[in-house]
């Protein structure tokens, strides 16, 4: 029995996000004129999976007590590059996808290398590399446009068996192939250890440097998967700083809503996925409730602020005031 | 025993007292390097007129960076700068319409006041709710954005900047030195006084180094947090007011170009992003460095893509020279 209680306590953040999402999505569907049809679900999924992937990417550095402010830029860079090289036949398209993933991994690895070997602060490192990646996006695609291999795009943004949104399947596969093996690997555990206490982790012989490098590299890969999905959705690429900024900021919010601590060492990418879903559903809710368009940014801002303020409940549990200052 | 060197116990050297350390020296060295490089490209780079103009543009960034620095010294970060800049500009220009004759006089204080209010709210969230400043100021940024969209109705506001705003942002009244530079100098003098000569300034460094230790020493840490965030908000809004005077109007997204450069300027100036270490001289160097870098890249007609890449690379390269953290084993 105590195993169950332990499990609940450990996953309270994730469960809160799941419940919040379920409630909001039910509200959304019950007020939607069409109800839950595969088309409605696919549209919602296609939008939500983008942020979910970027939020997963953000989770990995955050777990090591870092931060990646360049995820949005890597996301946009992958989008721009994909709109150039994921074209032609299906085979060429697949080759292009592999190339985009490699570029994403390289971008993440550069972040990690500067943080690990350059010993710079992650915030400032990724702010600066973000500018570089944005410059590369502008170089690849000065104006919006481009194309994408339409067979792959249709396959990945449509429905599987005519019911399940393919984007959700992609997300599921990413969780299965990337997150779960990572979480169970030595370096994945090391990432949690580093996030909890880097000095202690180092003293215990945890591979601190490798763990950080892998976290940032995987973040680059996940962000570029999101960039690919964006390309498949829009059939074009655009080097847009506002899009990159919005995704970076929302990814941090999604991570927090999903129960991951910004102080590292606690949380999971699964929580971030549901955090992203919650954020996306808020936007959809504003749409079905016909809120005047001018009020929407304010409403979104207030909801975002309230959502992140949920973290303040931890101060009720603190018995010793000094624990607040960690 | 004789011959004991009584001079062994000395105070800090003159350089240290002025705040000149390795990072500040390197930052100023890089400024000279950029100027020399620019001079090779065109003689204009060393003309007083060009330099004064750069300082005038840099003054806006300098004022934003002054506020950002106070928050970074605490080990926190203020990501609400972009929309607080816009808030200051929009509220100041709108006040002219609301306040009637008095509005002309009230517009500048009102703009700054609005920024300070947002700053206080940021401070309350960080101090009492104990939320990470990065995420709370981010949410506040979104809220302010929503308010401003509502205020303008989604369109560009029609309000014009007043004479006074135009005067302090653009005109040159003394020896041809831009008034904006005097404003920055005043703000800078205030920050230096605050950090070096007041108990509040000591408390800022103390909280930045270890908040629990500062708390146990009797510092009202929450007051320090709120004070610094309020100052950051007020300065961002003040820069917005000046910008409105400079471009004669307030517009959406006018603050977007100030967040990254302000943080970069503070960090390039040797302030530790984890808090507790840094001095204002470095921030001045950082601001001038960033302004010159942006100016040179645009003078050389570098396309935006190349500008972003070089900008990012220079920041990384400079930090790799002197901003590196300690090794894990030490």
TrEMBL record, chain B:
Kindly state which keywords UniProt assigns to this record, in alphabetical order.
Cell inner membrane, Cell membrane, Membrane, Transmembrane, Transmembrane helix, Transport
Q: Which domain of life is it from?
A: Bacteria
The keyword Cell membrane is assigned to this record:
yes
Where is it mainly found?
membrane
Q: Where in the cell is it found?
A: Cell membrane
Membrane topology, as annotated, equals: Multi-pass membrane protein
Subunit arrangement? The complex is composed of two ATP-binding proteins (LsrA), two transmembrane proteins (LsrC and LsrD) and a solute-binding protein (LsrB).
Q: What is this protein called?
A: Autoinducer 2 import system permease protein LsrD
């Amino acid at each position: 029995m105590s195993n169950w209680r332990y499990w609940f306590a450990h996953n309270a953040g994730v469960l809160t996000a799941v419940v919040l999402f379920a409630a909001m999505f039910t509200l959304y569907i019950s007020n939607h004129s069409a109800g839950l049809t595969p088309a409605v679900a696919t549209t919602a999924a296609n939008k939500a999976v983008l942020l979910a992937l970027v939020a997963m990417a953000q989770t990995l550095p955050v777990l090591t007590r870092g931060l990646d402010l360049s995820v949005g830029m890597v996301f946009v860079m992958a989008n721009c590059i994909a709109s150039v090289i994921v074209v032609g036949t299906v085979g060429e398209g697949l080759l292009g996808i592999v190339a985009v993933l490699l570029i994403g991994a390289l971008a993440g690895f550069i972040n990690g290398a500067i943080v690990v070997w350059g010993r710079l602060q992650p915030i400032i490192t990724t702010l600066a590399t973000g500018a570089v990646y944005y410059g590369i996006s502008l170089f690849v695609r000065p104006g919006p446009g481009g194309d994408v291999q339409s067979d792959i795009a249709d396959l990945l943004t449509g429905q599987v068996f005519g019911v399940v949104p393919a984007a959700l399947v992609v997300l599921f596969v990413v969780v299965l192939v990337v997150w779960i093996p990572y979480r169970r690997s030595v370096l994945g555990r090391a990432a949690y250890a580093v996030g909890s206490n880097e000095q202690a982790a180092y003293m215990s012989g945890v591979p601190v440097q490798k763990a950080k490098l892998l976290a940032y590299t995987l973040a680059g890969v996940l962000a570029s998967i999101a960039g690919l999905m964006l390309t498949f959705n829009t059939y074009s690429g655009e080097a847009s700083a506002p899009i990159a900024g919005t995704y970076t900021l929302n990814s941090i919010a999604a991570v927090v809503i999903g129960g991951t601590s910004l102080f590292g060492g606690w949380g999971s990418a699964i929580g971030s996925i549901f955090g992203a879903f919650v954020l996306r559903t808020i936007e959809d809710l504003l749409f079905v409730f016909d809120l005047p368009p001018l009020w929407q940014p304010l409403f979104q801002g207030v909801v975002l602020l309230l959502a992140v303020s949920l973290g303040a409940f931890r101060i009720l549990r603190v018995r010793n005031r000094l624990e607040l200052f960690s | 025993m004789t011959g004991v060197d009584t001079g062994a116990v000395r105070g800090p050297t003159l350089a240290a007292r002025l705040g000149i350390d390795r990072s500040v020296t390197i930052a100023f060295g890089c400024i000279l390097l950029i100027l020399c490089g620019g001079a090779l490209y065109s003689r204009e780079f060393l003309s007083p007129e060009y330099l004064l103009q750069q300082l005038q543009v840099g003054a806006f960034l300098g004022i934003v960076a002054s506020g950002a620095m106070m928050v970074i010294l605490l080990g926190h970060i203020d990501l609400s700068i972009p929309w607080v800049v816009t808030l200051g500009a929009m509220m100041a220009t709108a006040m002219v319409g609301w306040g009637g004759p008095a509005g002309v006089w009230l517009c500048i204080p009102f703009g700054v006041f609005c920024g300070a209010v947002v700053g206080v709210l940021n401070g309350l969230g960080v101090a009492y709710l104990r939320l990470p400043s990065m995420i709370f100021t981010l949410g506040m940024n979104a809220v302010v954005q929503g308010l401003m969209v509502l205020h303008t109705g989604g369109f560009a506001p029609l309000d014009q900047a007043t004479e006074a705003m135009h005067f302090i942002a653009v005109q040159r009244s003394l020896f041809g030195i831009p008034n904006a530079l005097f404003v920055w100098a005043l703000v800078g003098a205030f920050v230096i006084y605050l950090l070096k000569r007041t108990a509040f300034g000591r408390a800022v460094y103390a909280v930045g180094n270890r908040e629990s230790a500062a708390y146990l020493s009797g510092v009202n840490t929450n007051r320090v947090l709120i004070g610094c965030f309020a100052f950051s908000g007020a300065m961002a809004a003040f820069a917005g007011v000046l910008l409105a005077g400079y471009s004669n109007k307030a517009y959406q997204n006018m603050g977007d170009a100030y967040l990254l450069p302000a943080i970069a300027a503070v960090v390039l100036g040797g302030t530790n992003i984890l808090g507790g270490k840094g001095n204002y001289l470095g921030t001045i160097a950082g601001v001038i460095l960033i302004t010159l870098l942006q100016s040179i890249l645009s003078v050389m007609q570098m396309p935006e893509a190349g500008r972003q890449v070089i900008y990012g690379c220079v920041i990384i390269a400079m930090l790799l020279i002197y901003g590196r953290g300690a090794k894990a084993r030490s």
